């Protein structure tokens, strides 16, 4: 795989506020990267540095071995950022056709309309589209230049379930073509499913870089879920239990020692139904890690 993005000791501040602090980052072809973090963690700032919209205070950063924002780098990048273009009096086909003229070797508007299943509203004006339809058009705009690197910021907001599934299938096709994709999203289950690597930004630094499986291994919590008529407080002080939540007689126990907790549950088994045991999801790990940072 070829290196597309290389950052060393990358730092950026707004005045006296340190937003990014000595980040090291390497992204290669064919990688899907999930960039996550709380609001204000620096995700948008990092994307702006990669796009050349802002310049780092210190450190080294190259995109396609170029300075970010260079003409060559721009031609190789597609961006699906928040805020969709609903230009009055312009149809989907007209927008994509006009956008294609800005690039030396674009995909055709007709090809994208067919590939992304936009035919049903291709001749409609942008202002007549739903939020989910506009999001799909914005994705088409990101692809019109036939980019090698994609930035996707909250890409599936407003899409229905079918559109979301089609979107992620297309992302897998792009990965197979060797494209690199960086996704920022608050829909963490999506990141968990598609990302080859997860980057967790916290206090201006990467608190974690690696696969979701590695994150789960480091974060040894498991979730034991069951139905019972017993109150949740019954399980608060069992061995290994770190948290108990319950709703409508469904109890979820987070445990840092699965075996000890299961052994402690033995006396209650006759009163437990539909018992399942799972590792923590990315959403649950994210909450725990960010809570810990605030403690």
From TrEMBL:
InterPro entries assigned to the protein according to its UniProt record, in alphabetical order: AAA+_ATPase, ABC_transporter-like_ATP-bd, ABC_transporter-like_CS, ABC_transporter_ATP-binding, P-loop_NTPase
Coiled-coil boundaries: none
Domain of life: Bacteria
Sequence ranges assigned to domain ABC transporter in this UniProt record: 5-228
A single MF term (Gene Ontology): ATP binding
Keywords: ATP-binding, Nucleotide-binding, Transport
Name used for this protein in its record: ABC transporter ATP-binding protein
């Amino acid at each position: 795989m070829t290196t597309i993005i290389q950052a060393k000791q990358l730092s950026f501040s707004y005045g006296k506020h340190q937003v990014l602090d000595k980040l090291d980052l390497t992204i290669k072809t064919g990688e899907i990267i999930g960039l996550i973090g709380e609001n204000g963690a620096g995700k948008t700032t990092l994307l702006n540095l990669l796009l050349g919209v802002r310049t780092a205070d210190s450190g080294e950063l190259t995109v396609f071995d170029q300075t970010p924002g260079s003409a060559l780098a721009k031609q190789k990048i597609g961006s699906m950022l928040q805020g969709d273009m609903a230009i009055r009096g312009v149809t989907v086909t007209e927008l994509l056709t006009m956008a294609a003229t800005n690039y030396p070797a674009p995909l055709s508007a007709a090809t994208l309309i067919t590939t992304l299943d936009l035919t049903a509203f291709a001749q409609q004006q942008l202002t007549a589209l739903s939020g989910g339809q506009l999001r799909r058009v914005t994705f088409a705009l990101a692809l019109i230049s036939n980019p090698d690197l994609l930035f996707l910021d909250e890409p599936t907001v407003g899409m229905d379930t079918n559109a979301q599934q089609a979107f992620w299938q297309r992302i897998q096709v792009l990965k197979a073509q060797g494209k690199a994709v960086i996704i920022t999203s608050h829909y963490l289950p999506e990141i968990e499913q598609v990302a080859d690597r997860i980057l967790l930004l916290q206090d201006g630094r990467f608190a974690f870089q690696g696969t979701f499986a590695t994150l789960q291994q480091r974060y040894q919590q498991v979730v034991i879920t069951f139905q019972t008529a017993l109150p949740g407080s019954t399980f608060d002080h069992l061995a290994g239990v770190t948290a108990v939540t319950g709703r409508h007689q469904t109890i979820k126990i987070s445990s840092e020692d699965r075996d000890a907790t299961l052994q402690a549950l033995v006396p209650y088994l006759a009163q437990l139904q539909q018992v399942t045991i799972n590792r923590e999801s990315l959403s649950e790990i994210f909450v725990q890690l960010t809570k810990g940072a605030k403690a």
